[in-house]
Specification:
alpha/beta; TIM Barrel; five-stranded parallel beta sheet; two-stranded antiparallel sheet
Length: 334
C-alpha cells in the first residue's frame, strides 16, 4: 500500500468516518492560457488516476445512503461537476469511464441546448476580441466602480479584465448581469459560441453511461438574493425538467456559487429539502461526516500540480478544511 493510500486509510477508515467530495466544472481539450487552473484532459486524467488509487470512489447517492446508515466504505470519495458544460460529455466522461469511476453532474437547465451562462458571455467576448481596450463608462452596472477602461490586448490583460468584471457584477440581480454581459459582448464585436453547454440529449447520454444527474437551478441565480417563491421556482424548474428528459427522480442538488450564508441561506436549504431532494452540495471546504447536514454537504478539490501535494492537501482538508480557492476558477462561478 502506498504511503498516501495508507494515510487516507488511517484518516478515513470507514463506518462513520469521512466522505470527500471533489468539485469540477470543465475539462478542456488543451490548457487555457486565460484560465490556467482549469483542468485539461491530460491533467484530469492524471488526477483521476491518483484518486482511483487512493480512494473508493462511489456514486454520491450511494454515499449519502451510507452516511445515513453510518456505513461508509474506507477512503470514501464522490466526484461532482457543476453547470453542465458540453466538455463534461465529450472529454470528462471518457476519462471517467477509462478509470472505472462515476460522477454526479449538476445541470443549470436553462442553458442546455445552445444557451450560454452570463460569465461565459464575458469570458468568450474578451477572449476573442481584437480591440485593445474595453470601455465601461457607459454601462450602467459599472457606474460608481473603479472599472472604467480596461486593457484587453494581451492574455494577461484579458485574464485580469475578466476577473475584475466578473467580481464587479457577480452579485448583481440576474437581469442586470445579463444586460452587462451583453453590453460587453457588443463592444467586443465577436460571434459568441453557442455550443459551450450540453444538449438535453447529451445529458441523457451521461445518465445512460452510468453517471448521476443532479439539479442546479434553471438560470444559476444567487439564491440568497431571491424571494422564497422564486427560489422554489428555480429549484423545482430544474428538477422537473431533468425528471422529464431522464424519466426518473432527480434527488441531488447543488447550490449556485454555493457558499453558505453568502450565496444561499438556511431557508433555501429548507426549500431544497421540502422539494424532495435527498442531499445538496455547497462549495464550502471540508469533508462530510455522519453528523453533517445532508442539505449542505461540503466539497473541495486541491489545486496542486504534483501527486504528493495534491494528496497532502486532501488529507489536510479531512482535518480542518479552510477558505476556498474556487473563486480563482472562472470568476468563482460554480
Amino acid at each position: 500500500m502506498s504511503p498516501l493510500k495508507l494515510a487516507f486509510q488511517i484518516v478515513c477508515p470507514g463506518g462513520d468516518s469521512k466522505l470527500s467530495i471533489l468539485i469540477f466544472h470543465r475539462v478542456l481539450p488543451e490548457p487555457d492560457p486565460i484560465f490556467p487552473d482549469e483542468p485539461d484532459a491530460r491533467r484530469f486524467d492524471q488526477v483521476m488516476g491518483w484518486v482511483s488509487t487512493w480512494f473508493n470512489v462511489i456514486p454520491l447517492d450511494v454515499a449519502v445512503d451510507a452516511l445515513r446508515t453510518r456505513n461508509l466504505p474506507a477512503r470514501a470519495m464522490a466526484i461532482t461537476f457543476d453547470d453542465g458544460y458540453a466538455d463534461n460529455r465529450t472529454i470528462a466522461l471518457p476519462i471517467l469511464k477509462r478509470h472505472g469511476l462515476s460522477a454526479t453532474f449538476f445541470i443549470a437547465t436553462g442553458y442546455l441546448d445552445g444557451g450560454r451562462m452570463w460569465n461565459d458571455t464575458i469570458i468568450e467576448a474578451i477572449r476573442s476580441s481584437k480591440t485593445r481596450r474595453l470601455e465601461l463608462d457607459d454601462i450602467k452596472q459599472f457606474e460608481g466602480s473603479r472599472l472604467r477602461s480596461l486593457a484587453i490586448g494581451s492574455v494577461p490583460e484579458k485574464r485580469a479584465a475578466i476577473q475584475a468584471i466578473l467580481g464587479q457584477i457577480k452579485y448583481l440581480p440576474s437581469s442586470e448581469r445579463e444586460v452587462a454581459s451583453r453590453s460587453i459582448a457588443e463592444q467586443c464585436d465577436i460571434n459568441l459560441p453557442d455550443n459551450l453547454m450540453m444538449t438535453s440529449q447529451q445529458v441523457v447520454e451521461m445518465r445512460r453511461a452510468g453517471m448521476l444527474i443532479g439539479a442546479h437551478t434553471v438560470s444559476h441565480p444567487i439564491l440568497a438574493q431571491l424571494q422564497p417563491c422564486d427560489v422554489r421556482k428555480e429549484i423545482s424548474g430544474s428538477k422537473v425538467f431533468l425528471e422529464g428528459i431522464l424519466e426518473e427522480e432527480t434527488c441531488l442538488f447543488a447550490y449556485p456559487n454555493g457558499r453558505p450564508n453568502v450565496d444561499f441561506q438556511t431557508k433555501d436549504a429548507s426549500i431544497v429539502k421540502e422539494l424532495g431532494f435527498k442531499a445538496a452540495v455547497s462549495t464550502a471546504w471540508g469533508t462530510t461526516g455522519t453528523d453533517s447536514d445532508l442539505m449542505q454537504l461540503p466539497r473541495f478539490t486541491p489545486w496542486d500540480k504534483t501527486r504528493l501535494f495534491f494528496g497532502a492537501r486532501l488529507i489536510k482538508n479531512v482535518f480542518c478544511g479552510g477558505p476556498s480557492r474556487l473563486d480563482s476558477h472562472r470568476g468563482g462561478i460554480s
